[in-house]
């Protein structure tokens, strides 16, 4: 179960208290925002894509949407989401709990979208559909083993 892997990932870094588990679902941005008690934009959603170089994750603010033009300019291909089966296979996390933690960085590359940088803290999932992690953007960048900050979203600046 991937929540155990994520908890072990954080425990190995002395940060096990960061992982939050809930009795209610946090599988969507709206449910996670209600459960955590924050605005939807502060939920850090992890989107999974396939490219010619392999799978990648893009962590964005909850109110951001992928801008196809920006995505193609950044990655050189059209945005193609992984199927739920592929997401589980490549990340070890089922849809609703996909996150950049406890993911093999040699197999999957993670990026962070600049839409997150307007917040002091954000809440990505923690490997299950009823979990989250409260992190600063700096902590998220380090723990996600991010390949960098990118700008591939729209809708959040409006």
Structure description:
The structure is a single chain. Helices cover 26% and strands 25% of the residues. The chain contains 5 helices and 10 strands; from the N terminus they run H-E-H-E-E-E-H-H-E-E-E-E-H-E-E. It is globular and about 40 Å long.
Q: What order do the helices and strands come in, and which of them pair?
A:
Elements lengths: L1 H10 L7 E3 L7 H8 L6 E9 L2 E8 L3 E2 L1 H8 L8 H8 L17 E5 L7 E4 L6 E3 L1 E2 H7 L5 E2 L2 E2 L4
Parallel strand pairs: 2-6, 3-5, 5-9
Antiparallel strand pairs: 1-7, 2-3, 4-10, 6-8
Give the integer mean of the pLDDT values.
94
- Give, in spatial order, the strands making up the sheet with the most strands: 8-6-2-3-5-9
Strand tally, please? 10
User: Span between N and C termini?
Assistant: 38 Å
- What percentage of amino acids are in beta strands? 25-35%
Distinct helical segment count? 5
Low-pLDDT windows of residues: none
Main beta sheet strand tally, sense and closure: 6 strands, mixed
Radius of gyration: 14 Å
The portion of residues assigned to helices is 25-40%
Question: Summary?
Answer:
With 158 residues, this protein is an alpha/beta fold. It has helices at residues 2-11, 29-36, 68-75, 84-91, 137-143, and strands at 19-21, 43-51, 54-61, 65-66, 109-113, 121-124, 131-133, 135-136, 149-150, 153-154.
């Amino acid at each position: 179960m991937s929540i155990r892997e994520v908890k072990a990932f954080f425990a190995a870094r002395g940060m096990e208290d960061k992982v939050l588990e809930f009795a209610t679902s946090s599988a969507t941005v709206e449910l996670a925002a209600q459960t955590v008690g924050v605005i939807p934009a502060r939920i850090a959603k992890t989107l999974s894509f396939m490219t010619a170089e392999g799978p990648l994750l893009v962590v964005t603010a909850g109110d951001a949407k992928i801008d196809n033009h920006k995505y193609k300019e950044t990655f050189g291909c059209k945005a193609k989401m992984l199927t739920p089966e592929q997401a589980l296979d490549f990340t070890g996390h089922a849809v609703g709990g996909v996150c950049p933690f406890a993911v093999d960085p040699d197999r999957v590359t993670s990026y962070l979208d600049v839409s997150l940088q307007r917040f002091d803290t954000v809440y990505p999932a923690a490997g299950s559909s009823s979990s989250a992690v409260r992190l600063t953007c700096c902590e998220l960048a380090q723990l996600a083993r991010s390949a960098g900050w990118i700008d591939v979203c729209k809708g959040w600046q409006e």
